[in-house]
Design a protein that fits this description.
alpha/beta, 5-stranded parallel beta sheet, single chain, 51% helix
Length: 136
């Protein structure tokens, strides 16, 4: 079974229904729901997700969405070592550096994101949801 790290942007696509990206996010997360892949996200993603969802939903509804979402994913901790790795990285975007460092620290070999340009310095596979879904 594949174990992949999914960046916050793809999670938000799913949870906010952000078109047209929500369709591939729905397909990706349905693979996790049916046990075909294991999706990992960093703990950092949850605050970012809530921030975006609050522009569409009440606090109560946002938390309900997040609670349901949490059942689909494995939450990876962002700790002091993760932050140290991000600080020392060559990534321009610090949030992406934290996400990447979290994936590396947990020995993951694939990141799924729509934001390929900020992961140019990655040493592991970085794929869009569409590319991941069409791989053999």
């Amino acid at each position: 079974m594949d174990k992949v790290f999914v960046d916050t942007d793809v999670c938000i696509d799913l949870l906010s229904g952000r078109m047209p990206f929500n369709k591939s996010a729905e397909l990706l997360f349905s693979l996790a729901d049916t046990g075909k892949i294991k999706i990992c996200v960093s703990s950092l993603s949850f605050s970012n997700i809530d921030y975006v969802l609050l522009s569409q939903y009440s606090t109560t509804h946002s938390r309900q969405i997040i609670a349901k979402f949490k059942t689909l994913v494995q939450v990876l901790a962002v700790n002091s070592k993760t932050i140290d790795l991000a600080i020392a990285s060559d990534f321009n975007d610090f949030e992406d550096a934290i996400q990447y460092s979290c994936a590396i620290e947990h020995n993951l070999t694939t990141i799924i994101t729509r934001n390929l340009k900020d992961y140019k310095k990655a040493t592991i596979k970085v794929l869009t949801p569409e590319t991941y879904l069409t791989k053999p």
